[in-house]
Amino acid sequence: NIMHLANPTNTIAVLNRYGFNFQKKFGQNFLIDENIVEKIVREAGVTKDDFVLEIGPGIGTMTQILCENAREVVAVEIDTKLIPILKEDTLRYYDNVTVINEDILKLDINKIVKEKNNGKPIKVVANLPYYITTPIIMGLFENHVALDSITIMVQKEVADRMQVGPGTKDYGALSLAVQYYAKPEIVLNVPASCFMPRPNVDSAVIRLNRYQTPAYDVKNEKLLFNLIKASFLQRRKTMLNSVSNGLSNVTKEDLANALESMGLPKTVRGEALTLEQFVELSNLLAK
Ligand code: SAM
């Protein structure tokens, strides 16, 4: 008879048993709402066929539900103090989980996917520490990890940023990068009261469905991303100025010609361009 953790009483009991203190530097806010945990796992679409990578299991609140729904789970936790809790206590009855004590940013995820899932696409599910959301997501995409989807709890604002298009203040390099690789969908809003300790911000769960074949025809990916980065580094400037400052291999003249051939004004800013337009522009400049 397994005791689920997703309520304040059981969470406090485990924390007290081990004399655990929350570490701010690891962004520790543990879920204490059973409904939310179950909804996240459901929205992730986890089935008995799936291999799931969980980033930052904490005391194992969501890991328990993942183990009950997936074929196999690997949970990567940076905080050494949480490892005995997970291994000896909260996950001890599950035989389909491996706990790894490591920083996710230092782990060779491709190797795990190869060993545990024959290199086939995996599902990533996580309630992320907010300060490393972007490097984690970009790391998964840029290292070409075989992914079916990433379902993650992030700061509400960051979830919005991943989903929006031009014409809003949230639109930026992250929106474009995420949308190049995946189709984003916010699936759940989560109030601060669902966590212990309570965070200062509201959260949302976003699912990123990875495109299995590239959605955009790009001649030079590196150029595309350099163009995007340079355009948003100085977002109040015109593209012509910010790109010629930020990118040495694109001349002002080539850029002006490319913009003109796309029917865009010389004064256009990067924040006005859609992903399709960035792709077209980078293809015009890739020669
Ligand atoms: N999944 C748990 C839950 O929902 O209750 C905990 C979520 S808490 C927001 C984030 C977790 O990620 C913490 O357990 C923290 O120690 C862990 N963590 C932080 N940085 C990490 C890193 N670089 N690699 C792996 N885990 C990390």
Topology:
Layout: H1 8-17, E1 30-31, H2 34-43, E2 51-55, H3 61-69, E3 72-77, H4 83-90, E4 97-101, H5 109-117, E5 122-127, H6 133-142, E6 147-155, H7 156-163, H8 173-181, E7 182-190, E8 195-196, E9 203-210, H9 221-233, H10 239-246, H11 252-261, H12 275-285
Bound molecules: S-adenosylmethionine.
S-adenosylmethionine (SAM) is lined by residues 26-31, 55-58, 61-62, 76-79, 103-105, 127, 129, 132.
Key descriptive features of the protein:
287 residues; alpha/beta; 7-stranded mixed sheet; two-stranded antiparallel sheet; 12 helices; elongated; binds S-adenosylmethionine
Helix and strand composition category: alpha/beta
Please write the string of helix (H) and strand (E) elements: HEHEHEHEHEHEHHEEEHHHH
Q: Distance between the terminal alpha carbons, to the nearest Å?
A: 64 Å
Q: How are the strands of the largest sheet arranged?
A: 4-3-2-5-6-9-7
Helix content: 40-55%
Q: Major sheet, described briefly?
A: 7 strands, mixed
Cα-atom radius of gyration: 21 Å
Shape: elongated
* Mean of all residue-level pLDDT scores: 95
* Binned strand content: 15-25%
Q: What does this 3D model show about the protein?
A:
This protein has helices spanning 8-17, 34-43, 61-69, 83-90, 109-117, 133-142, 156-163, 173-181, 221-233, 239-246, 252-261, 275-285; strands spanning 30-31, 51-55, 72-77, 97-101, 122-127, 147-155, 182-190, 195-196, 203-210. With 287 residues, the protein is α/β, with parallel strands linked by helices. The strands form two sheets. The protein has a seven-stranded mixed β-sheet, with helices on both faces. Strands 1-8 form a two-stranded antiparallel sheet. Helix 3 links the parallel strand 2 (51-55) and strand 3 (72-77). The chain starts with 7 loop residues before the first helix and ends with a helix. The structure holds S-adenosylmethionine.
